[in-house]
Amino acid sequence: MTEAVQPALDDLVPELALVREAGLEPLEVEPLIPRLPRLAGLGVVRRRTHTDTALAVAASICHLTREATERLTDDHDHPGPPSQPTPIAKAQMLLRVHYATKSLSAAEARTKTREASGVGDRQYRARHEVRLLRLVAQALLGLDREDDLHQWGRALEVGADVPQTVALYWLELFRDHYFRLETSAYALQADLMTAHVQLAGDLPSWKLYLATAVYWNVEFSYLRHRFFRRHGPLWFAPTDEGCTRLNDAVERIEYHDPFPDEFMARLRRIYGSAVDPDHDTFTESLGAAGLTDFTLAKAETWLRRCTCPRDAHAERCEVGLVIASCDTFGETVETEFERIQTWYRTPRFAADESLKDLITNYRTPSKERAEATEKPSVMEQLGG
């Protein structure tokens, strides 16, 4: 795999100016494609263009330009004057991803950005707009570089010759920990969302869903605690980003759920006291400990503090944070395992090399047994 050479930053600016003037509309950008060789040649544009047409290339350029502009973030350590938007905000205004210009035309957005810059039209066009477009070009090159690294990662992941011990350790983590945590997280998310909606609609069954959500919350905490006991806080995944997302999502769920740490520890002991824990055994054990009413009351108080609309939780709403973190955890588990699941489809990881021929060829026509007594049984061949 060869790595594409990125164009120079300033080479992208004139092409981005054309895309901006076209309003980031694919149909308007399509006839400009011959004048956009550097943008069209970016690896991330080529990889995201799935149809060999100018319109498809134009759509990819528009989408990625918008994505790069949205990714721009201000430096909070060096904020601009309170009365004037920062360069990042002005770049987003110019490309119409800022709330102040989203509904404006490309020409109107340019005028609004010039006014926010506090300079005359000639000075703005000669100097200020180029600087704003350079910010977007830099973000676009960052996207291209990230995508290139992911391509290298994917190339290594498919059939990578990793030590079998590493592959089997990964399999243990996903099979015995990550996927079980994911199941509990998604169940917790579904029951919380249902309880929240039904509480808002004054449906009496909301309490049943909340009680089930409490069970999944405790199971999730128990599984996370079990994982820490066996492996420590080592979220071992194919990518560093995946490890960070797994850890952060779990921490947020545990931090923002209804129960303080010391009480959750007690709930975990109740859950773990059963030989084969399930919702019924947990409910019975909770009742036997005299904690049913107290536990559900704390969960109800926590849920009632959320007065957000169904699909638009406030930034600091704890119910919304738990729901969103469950989604993040589940998506990360699925994405990370997809990167390496090809490993486990090969005989090298399915069985020991000495048993490979026995397992893969036992039922082939050339080796099919005519009579039961002609050949020893599989267990006999294995020494059983």
Task: Give an overview in words.
The chain is about 65% helix and about 0% strand. The protein has 18 helices and no strands. It has helices at about 10-20, 25-30, 35-40, 45-50, 55-70, 85-95, 105-115, 120-155, 165-200, 205-230, 240-255, 260-270, 280-290, 290-305, 320-340, 345-350, 355-360, 380.
Helices and strands, in N-to-C order?
A: HHHHHHHHHHHHHHHHHH
Q: Give the strand tally.
A: 0
Shape: globular
Helix share bin:
55-70%
**Proportion of β residues?**
under 5%
Structural class: mainly alpha
Overall residue-averaged pLDDT value: 83
Cα distance spanning the termini: 48 Å
Largest sheet: none
How many separate helices?
A: 18
Radius of gyration: 28 Å
How would you summarize what this structure contains?
With 384 residues, this protein is an all-alpha fold. It has helices at 9-21, 26-29, 37-41, 43-48, 54-71, 87-94, 106-117, 121-157, 164-200, 206-231, 240-256, 261-272, 279-288, 292-304, 318-338, 347-350, 353-361, 378-381. Helix content is 67%, strand content 0%.
Brief descriptors of the model:
single chain, 384 residues, 0% strand, mainly alpha
Please specify the SSE layout and strand pairing.
Elements: H1 9-21, H2 26-29, H3 37-41, H4 43-48, H5 54-71, H6 87-94, H7 106-117, H8 121-157, H9 164-200, H10 206-231, H11 240-256, H12 261-272, H13 279-288, H14 292-304, H15 318-338, H16 347-350, H17 353-361, H18 378-381
